[in-house]
């Protein structure tokens, strides 16, 4: 799926190893027959992951970011790619926002952030993810992935697959059991 991305001051054009890993994970999940009904993109940046999911699956996606500039950029990118009917971009820090809770449970959750925030988000995302739902995590250096995976396992997630060798970055696809 081709997307037009204007990064402006936000993160995520699809070329960085972490973002690319998430998109490759989405592609693999689709090939494996995974068909989520609703998705959440935490730390959406430009909205590229939300747009990839909405364009490929035609499902509603809530894209969130703590940075108001990123949210504005994501909204512009959503408009430019004519994905407005599928994506809502909001400013939110973490998973406590009422809009995030109202949309749960999510079948697909993207969190392309960093190792430390991913560890902190595990219990909250676990409460928001449907059984059988998949969390796609990135922003992890290869050496950090096992530790983050261990934290998520403790919160009810099992490894579905890992993508390594993305310029030193790893992407995890974890299933809520």
Account of the 3D structure:
Strands 3-2-1-4-5-7-6 form a 7-stranded mixed beta sheet, sandwiched between helices. The protein is 38% helix and 29% strand. The chain has 6 helices and 7 strands; from the N terminus they run H-E-H-E-H-E-H-E-H-E-H-E-E. Helix 5 links the parallel strand 4 and strand 5.
Strands, helices and their partners?
Blueprint: H1 17-31, E1 39-42, H2 48-57, E2 61-65, H3 68-80, E3 87-91, H4 98-103, E4 106-112, H5 115-128, E5 129-141, H6 145-154, E6 157-166, E7 169-176
Parallel strand pairs: 1-2, 1-4, 2-3, 4-5
Antiparallel strand pairs: 5-7, 6-7
Helix pairs in contact: 1-2, 5-6
Mean pLDDT: 92
Uncertain regions spanning at least 5 consecutive residues? none
Distinct helical segment count = 6
> Count the strands?
7
Question: How many angstroms separate the termini?
Answer: 30 Å
Please give the radius of gyration in angstroms. Answer: 14 Å
The portion of residues forming beta strands comes to 25-35%
Q: Tell me the strand order in the biggest sheet.
A: 3-2-1-4-5-7-6
Oligomer, anyone?
single chain
Could you give a quick summary of the protein structure above?
The chain has 177 residues and is α/β, with parallel strands linked by helices. It contains six helices and seven strands.
Overview features:
single chain, 7 strands, alpha/beta, 29% strand, 177 residues
